[in-house]
Amino acid sequence: MNEVDCLETVFAELSEIGTTLTVEPYQKIKRNAFVFITAEPDSCHVALEDLRKIEDVTEVYLARGAYDLVAKISGDSLDHLRENVLKRIKNLSSVKSTLTLTII
């Protein structure tokens, strides 16, 4: 059951018992993910600048350890993140590989 169906069920139950509830119009929930990125050798700063140019990348950090960068991405849906944002990140010449953790 999605959020809209759940709200409709609650409103129907409240109507049956005579209770009213005022709610703001349904707003889409933004979906977020963290992308752990391995850059091509000697390309960390290039990758950082390339990532900053992508519209749905909300934060990006240089990192030490298993990954060179960590980016936070945001979009209207998980499909949007997967189809648009991740494809753009993976197609950057400065990016060698990625690992994505979706926030649910």
Q: What does this protein look like?
A:
The chain has 3 helices and 4 strands; from the N terminus they run H-E-H-E-E-H-E. A hairpin with a 6-residue loop joins strand 2 and strand 3 (69-75). It has a 4-stranded antiparallel sheet with strand order 2-3-1-4, with helices on one face. The model has no long low-confidence stretch (mean pLDDT 85). With 104 residues, the protein is an alpha+beta fold.
CATH H level, superfamily name: Lrp/AsnC effector binding domain/regulation of amino acid metabolism (RAM) domain
Oligomerization state of this entry? single chain
Specify the CATH class: Alpha Beta
- If you average the pLDDT, what whole number results? 85
Question: Mind describing the biggest β-sheet?
Answer: 4 strands, antiparallel
Question: How many discrete structural domains?
Answer: 1
CATH architecture heading: 2-Layer Sandwich
Assign an overall shape. elongated
Q: How much helical structure, as a percent, in the residues?
A: 25-40%
Keywords:
104 residues; alpha+beta; Alpha-Beta Plaits; four-stranded antiparallel beta sheet; elongated
In brief:
The chain has 104 residues and is an alpha+beta fold. The protein has helices at 3-16, 44-52, 78-90, and strands at 31-39, 57-62, 69-75, 95-103. It has a four-stranded antiparallel sheet, with helices on one face.
Topology:
Layout: H1 3-16, E1 31-39, H2 44-52, E2 57-62, E3 69-75, H3 78-90, E4 95-103
Antiparallel strand pairs: 1-3, 1-4, 2-3
